[in-house]
Amino acid sequence: MTPDSLPTPGGDAVIPVSVLNRAISTMLERSFLLVWVSGEVSNFTRAASGHWYFSIKDANAQMRCVMFRGRAQYAEFTPREGDKIEVRALVTMYEPRGELQLNVEAVRRTGQGRLYEAFLRLKAQLESEGLFAPERKRALPTHPRGIGIVTSLQAAALRDVLTTLSRRALHVPVIVFPAPVQGAGVSAKLAAMVEAANARREIDRLDVLIVCRGGGSIEDLWAFNEEVLARAIAASELPVVSGVGHETDFTIADFAADVRAPTPTAAAELVSPQRVLLLRELDHRHAALARGFGRMMERRTQQLDWLARRLVSPAERLQRQRVHLRQLASRLAAAGARPVRDARAHFALVQYRWERKRPNVEAHREHVLRLVGRVANERSRRLERDRACVSELAARLQVLSPQRTLERGYAALIDTQTGRAMRTPGALKSKRPLTVHLAEGSADVLLADVQSRLS
Question: Where do the Exonuclease VII large subunit C-terminal domain residues begin and end (predicted)?
């Protein structure tokens, strides 16, 4: 199903997703020509098949890219994560997943953009002067008497052109005007050969001139972007066919020439007799079919790579499970040993603290015995001191005792009625009962008469 054959919005037809994706992919490939896209490389992967898968991004967006092995093997460098690059790509869709992607044909570093800016400035200048005007272009001869070729003798493009001309127009003589096609000062040498071919056009019976070289980077093709060569081609009296690089390569020489050929081989086909038009159309159809088949095969290989990444062999799965099982066993052993180790450490700590806190019975017993001895000694000394003190107090008491006073011949008079001691003679009254205390007893007396006597 093609995009034109899809049902209209008002129709009721139902189509599978695969058909819709195929129609979108076809529409994208027809609508978007090869373009240069710049960005930063991310998620770069080289598959086992040799294909490159990566994304290019800038500050606001990103796009998935695929570069198949047939083109990746001719890349001048392998992009790395974070590289600033420019890719020449076709906008396509990966149908199985419905994802938009860039099918990369070529890749270059971003620094090459400065040469492209210089290319655009020179192109605009020469175009403003009318060097590229369509009315200046001349038709190629139908049956050229001779064909001139300006290129290097060592160039692979020369072999391709000669092979093509010998196959298609063996009867037409070919004159080669050798000149280097890469390096410093090459443009002037190429321009000199163009002028030499024009100078010998009548001598060598030349009717058309091919300026060609093989493909390469923009630096490799820069000799064909110089002003001196463009002006020499524009001033040529011979119709010039430019066949520089690949189909997607454009140079200033292409615009200055009368006819631009996509490749050196195509340039040889253009200057061949017109009877090959049908063969050329057949070749174009074959090339289109080959490109379509190639893209289909590339999509299939991309799908195969995607499925291969998802597929895991039983041996690998068992190995992963073994590794996972060993990890779990190690974690289980560590988890089981940790409580035992922690408990032992805690027990050792408690034992150490208990050993520090456990009383020393023998030391305490010795200390108690020392204390007992000290108490006994102290008690004996205190008892002796108390005995001495009691003896002293007893002696003092004996000295101060009233009994001793009485024993010395004194007597104590006590009022029998009041119980008070008689201290002064005035307290004595006649006929008053008294109790007299003597050293060996006491006696009750009654005073008959009291005569006071002053001492």
Answer: 131-444
Strand order in the sheet with 208-213: 174-178, 147-151, 208-213, 240-244, 259-260
Do 142 and 263 reside in the same domain of the chain?
Answer: yes
In a domain, 325, yes or no: no
Tokens coding 60: 């606001």
Contact 304, 49 (CB under 8 A): yes
The structure tokens listed for 97 are 């997943």
In terms of domains, do 142 and 73 share one? no
Q: How far apart are the first and last CA of the chain?
A: 169
Taking the C-alpha atoms of residue 29 and residue 392, their distance in angstroms, rounded to an integer, is: 138
Q: Is 269:280 a contact under the CB 8 Å cutoff?
A: yes
User: Are both 383 and 409 inside the same structural domain?
Assistant: no
* Interatomic CA distance for residues 285 and 88, integer angstroms: 23
Interatomic CA distance for residues 89 and 247, integer angstroms: 13
Residues, the chain: 455
Same domain, 242 and 355: no
396 and 409: one domain?
no
Domain CATH number, residue 75: 2.40.50.140
* 451 Ramachandran zone, left/alpha/beta (phi>0; psi -120 to 50): beta
Going from the C-alpha of 383 to that of each of 387, 396, 416, the distances in angstroms are 6, 19, 44
pLDDT digits (tens, 9 = 90+) for 160-187: 999 988 888 888 899 999 999 888 888 9
Final residue belonging to a domain, choices 90, 114, 138? 114
Q: C-alpha distances in angstroms, 137 versus 66, 121, 234, 239, 241?
A: 39, 22, 9, 8, 11
Q: Are 83 and 40 in contact (CB under 8 A)?
A: yes
- Reported as a single tens digit per residue, the pLDDT across 39-86 is 999 999 999 999 999 999 998 999 999 999 999 998 878 888 888 888
Q: What angle do CA 313, 301, 68 make, to 5 degrees?
A: 120
DSSP 425: G
Tally the domains of the chain. Answer: 4
